Amino acid sequence: MSDVEQAVDDAARAAVEWRSASLERRARVLREAVRVVVRRADEIAATVSAETGKPRTEALSHDLFPALDHVAWLARNFGKVLRPNRIRYSQPHLLQKRAWEVFEPYGVLAVISPWNVPFAIPFTSVATAIAAGNACVLKPSELTPACGEWVRRVLEEAGAPRGLVSVAHGEGAVGEALVAEPRVAKVFFTGSAAVGRRVAAAAGARGCPVVLELGGKDAFLVFADADLDRAVDGALFAAFTGAGQVCVSAERIYVERPVHDEFVRRFVAGAAALRPHEDVGPLITERQRAKVEALIEEAGGEILTGGRAGGGTFYEPTVIVRPASGAAIQREEIFGPVVTVHSFETEDEAVACANASEFALGASVWTRDMRRARRVARRVEAGMVWVNDFGYSYGAGQASWGGAKGSGFGRSLSTHGLRECVQVKLVDEDRGRLRPAWWFPYDDRTATALRNGLYVLYGEGRAGAAWRYRRDLLHLARRALGR
Ligand code: NAD
Predict the structure, then answer these.
(1) Which of 107, 375, 385, 461 places its Cα 20 to 30 Å from the Cα of 282?
(2) In this structure, are residues 250 and 238 in contact, taking their beta carbons and an 8 Å threshold?
C-alpha cells in the first residue's frame, strides 16, 4: 500500500467516528489546539525559520499569529456557522412545510499546501476541515515537511483521534496521487497557478470539487494625498516581507504623478537600508533565485537599487522603474524581493493599471480620501483590498481569504472557509395532510387552474387576480384536500 493510500485509509477510518462527534468535542480539540500552539510557539517558529530561512519576526507574524487567531475564531464560531438554517415558506401552497438546510461533512478532505507559510496555511486549512466534521489528509510542501508534521502533532496533542489528521509527505507526484484518490471528496490546494490548474483539471476529471488559493501580482496604488511616510513604510513591508515570497506581495507599485519622484526617492532609500538576514530572508531555493535573476535581466528599465545576489540564496531588495513593455516581469508572479514602480495620472488609469493582470489576489489603496478609497476598492479586481494597510487580514479569523481571476476560486478562513468544508443538504418535513395539487392525474381543468394560479402568485394586481380566479383556486384546494 502506498503512503497516500495508507494516509487516506487512516483518515477514512477516523472520518466515520468524527462525523458524529459532538460540537462540544470538536470545540474542545480546537480550544486545546490553541493552547498547544501557544505553549509550543517557540519550537514551531524555530522550525518555520529553519525550513524557510524566515527571520523569527516573520515566523511569528506570518505563521503563529494567523494560525492562532483563526483557530481561536473557529473554536468560538464554528458551531453557530454550521447550525441548521431554518427555511421559511410564505407561499400559500407551501405553508404546511417545514424545512432546514443542514451542513454535513464531506468525509475525507485533502489539503495540499505551499512552503511559504508552512505552518499557518496547512494548520488553518486542516483545523477548518475538522471543525466541520471531516478527516483530512495533508500533503505539505516537500520543502517544509517538519512544519507539516507540527500540524498533525498539535492537533493530536489537542485530542484529535489518530488518523483524523494524516500526513502524506513527498513531491508533486504524491499530491497528484492524493488528488486522484477516489475517497478524497474535496481538494483544498494552495500554491502556484500552474500547479493549481493541473490539480483542478485532475480533480475535475473525476468530478471532485476544489478550492484554489493561487499566486498573485498585487498592485499597490498610492494617491497624491496619501500619508507618504506611511505609504513608503507600507510599500517596503508589502514588497519585501518574506523576501517578496508572499502570495500577496506588492509586485507593482503605481504612484500618482505629483508624488511619484518623492515616493521613489524615499522608497529606494528604505529598500537599500533593509538588512539581509535580519530583515529580508533568503529565497527558498537556488532555482527560485535563478528565476528571479532571469526576470530582472529580461525586464529592461532602470534598476534603482538592488539587482544583485546577496550571498547564497539571498537577493537584494530591488526596485525597477520603466521596465520594457511586454517584459515577463510585468505579467508573471516574481516571488522575490523585486518590485516595479510606475506613475499614473488619473484614478481611472490607476484602476486600469491594477486590473491589467491575469491575477487578482490582493491589492492596496493609499489615500486620505476615504470616499475615493471605497470607490477604487470596488473597482479593483481582487479578492482582498486593503486601504492604507497591507495583508493584515490574514491574521484575523473572521476575515475571508481568496482570489479572483487567475488567482483561484473558493475561499479559505472565516464563515466562507467553513462553508467550503461542508455539503449543504435541504431536509424537508411534511406531515402529509395535503396532497400537492400538481400530482397525477393530469387534466385540462387542473392545467388551466395552475395557469391562472400564476397570476395569483406572481402577476400584478394579485388580490384582483385571486378574486377573478377564485374558482381555479377552489379547484386546486379541493385537489389538495383530496376531494
Ligand atoms: P507549488 O505550486 O510549487 O507547490 C504547492 C504544493 O503543491 C506543494 O505541496 C507541492 O508539492 C504540490 N504539488 C506540486 N505539483 C503537484 C501536482 N502535480 N499535483 C498535486 N500537488 C502538487 O507552490 P509553492 O512554491 O510551494 O508555493 C508558492 C506559490 O503558492 C506561489 O505562487 C504563491 O503565490 C502561492 N500561494 C498562494 C497563497 C494564497 O493564499 N492564495 C498562499 C501562499 C502561497
Answers:
(1) 385
(2) yes
Residue 250: predicted pLDDT? 98
Parallel/antiparallel/unpaired status of strands 184-190 and 404-405: unpaired
Q: Which residues contact 166 (CB under 8 A, 6 or more apart)?
A: 6, 7, 8, 10, 11, 14, 135, 136, 137, 138, 152
Name the residue type at position 417: G
C-alpha distances in angstroms, 434 versus 94, 324, 448, 473, 480? 10, 73, 20, 15, 5
Residues 19-62 have pLDDT tens digits of 999 999 999 999 999 999 999 999 999 999 999 999 999 999 99
Q: How many beta carbons lie within 10 A of that of residue 432, not counting itself?
A: 7
User: Helical H runs in 213-326?
Assistant: 228-240, 257-273, 286-299
Cell 470538536 belongs to which residue? 26
How many CA atoms does the CB half-sphere of 17 hold within 13 Å? Answer: 10
Name the one residue in this structure whose C-alpha cell is 519585501: 240
| Alpha carbon distance 83, 70 (integer Å) | 19
Q: What is the pLDDT of residues 75-109, one digit of tens each?
A: 999 999 999 999 999 999 999 999 999 999 999 99
Residue range 375-403: average pLDDT? 98
Q: To the nearest 5 percent, what fractions of the chain are helix, strand and coil? A: 50, 20, 30
φ and ψ of 104, to 5 deg: -115, 145
Which residue type, as a one-letter code, is found at position 154?
Answer: V
Residue range 304-354, pLDDT digits in tens? 999 888 888 999 999 999 999 899 999 999 999 999 999 999 999 999 999
SS3 assignment, position 276: strand
Kindly report the protein residue whose alpha carbon is nearest to atom 22 of ligand 1.
172
Contacts for 302 with CB less than 8 Å, ≥ 6 apart: 320, 321, 322
Pocket test for ligand 1, best of 4, 149, 190, 246 (most atoms within 8 A of CB): 190
Task: Tell me how far the alpha carbon of residue 397 lies from the centroid of ligand 1, in angstroms.
Answer: 22
**If we measure between CA atoms, which residue out of 411, 61, 89 comes closest to residue 242?**
61
| 93 CB-contact burial (10 Å; exposed 0-12 / middle 13-18 / buried 19+) | middle
Any residues with Cβ below 6 Å from ligand 1, and which?
112-117, 121, 139, 141-142, 171-172, 175-176, 179, 190-192, 195, 198-199, 213-216, 247, 333, 335, 361, 401, 403
Record the pTM.
Answer: 0.97
